[in-house]
Amino acid sequence: MRTDDFDFDLPERLIAQHPPVQRGASRLLRIGKEGMEDGQFAELPQSLHKHDLLVLNDTRVLKARLFGKKATGGQVEVMVERVVCEHEVLAQVRASKTPKPGSHFQVADAFSVSVLGREGEFFRLRFDSEESVDVLLERYGKLPLPPYITHAAEAEDEERYQTVFAREQGAVAAPTAGLHFDQAMLDALRAKGVQIAYVTLHVGAGTFQPVRAENVEDHVMHSEPYTVPQETVDAVRQARLNGGRVVAVGTTSLRALESAASSGELEAGSGETRIFIKPGYRFKVVEVLLTNFHLPRSTLLMLVSAFGGMEKMLAAYRHAVAKEYRFFSYGDAMLIEREQ
């Protein structure tokens, strides 16, 4: 397969720059085995069944963007990718000159950062403070909105670029399918008999990177940490015993579940995943996927093409453009039944 096979024309006006006025006030494109249907996210309970299991990613977005200065006065921008321990992170660093191991710079005129070295594409940094990385990020960091959102993070984003069920700190991008849910929707689904379980996958900045290789097979995935608790494994088994389906909310929940089933059976545990799901992949766990619309030439578009069928999904994207659905993180959603 060629990366060009997953390209499509997207008018810039369809890239959502702000969330809808209320959570859940989005459109929903339903894609089943017999075709597609336009609807509203508020109608989601009508598409789910008693005993279905909804799996949510409970990761919480870090205030991962920091701004500082070198001793020379030069500007430095830090984008934290991962908290390594209480005082160290892996991060992208933007500066006029590449920082060298042993160098230092100040962040927000508040604390010093030491450059310890390089680890692949990231710098390993130490925050030279008695306070922990988590505390310093919360106090001095800015929310890292995706590159296709053109405004700086505002008060609205502080609330709306987190899910209402976010609790495990560690992502640098939101699991955006979860942004549609408010507590009223979760309560309505429970009242219908839909069960809810959680996984954690800390989304990395690599989620926004287009595939640059000409051939899909040549692309190397970024690594992300995930956890699937035993309670979720038990809930999946119970749903199947009751005749329910496993409904992943977002590609991150799906990737966590499928990674935890690499042996063929879903197993509880934590690990790192580089799973690359593309057409030809055989799904082991997830039967329905709720997701937003993804970037052209992206691994996530390849994932949904594997899930719903390549021709059907590319047709759905053309339909979404024609019907002017809102795209990407703050955009509308699609509910996809697995093709096979």
Task: Chart the SSEs and their pairings.
Blueprint: E1 27-32, E2 35-40, H1 44-47, E3 53-57, E4 59-61, E5 65-70, E6 75-85, E7 88-95, E8 104-107, E9 111-119, E10 122-128, H2 133-140, H3 155-160, E11 168-171, H4 183-192, E12 195-201, E13 224-228, H5 230-241, E14 246-249, H6 251-259, E15 269-273, E16 288-292, H7 299-308, H8 310-322, E17 333-337
Helix pairs in contact: 7-8
Globally, the shape reads globular
CATH topology of the largest domain: QueA-like
Q: Could you tell me the radius of gyration in angstroms? A: 20 Å
The CATH class designation of the largest domain is Alpha Beta
- By secondary-structure content and strand pairing, the structural class works out as alpha/beta
CATH architecture of the largest domain: 3-Layer(aba) Sandwich
DSSP helical segment count: 8
How many distinct beta strands? 17
Distance between the termini: 20 Å
Strand content: 25-35%
The biggest beta sheet reads: 9 strands, mixed
What's the CATH H-level homologous superfamily of the largest domain? QueA-like
What does this molecule look like?
This protein is α/β, with parallel strands linked by helices and 340 residues long. The protein folds into two domains: 3-61 and 157-337, QueA-like, CATH 3.40.1780; 65-140, Thrombin, subunit H. The chain is built from eight helices and 17 strands. It has helices at residues 44-47, 133-140, 155-160, 183-192, 230-241, 251-259, 299-308, 310-322, and strands at 27-32, 35-40, 53-57, 59-61, 65-70, 75-85, 88-95, 104-107, 111-119, 122-128, 168-171, 195-201, 224-228, 246-249, 269-273, 288-292, 333-337. The strands form three sheets. The protein has a nine-stranded mixed sheet with strand order 2-1-17-16-14-3-12-13-15. It has a six-stranded antiparallel beta barrel with strand order 5-6-7-10-9-8. A hairpin with a 3-residue loop joins strand 8 and strand 9 (111-119). The longest helix is centred in the C-terminal third of the chain and has 13 residues, at 310-322. The mean pLDDT is 96.
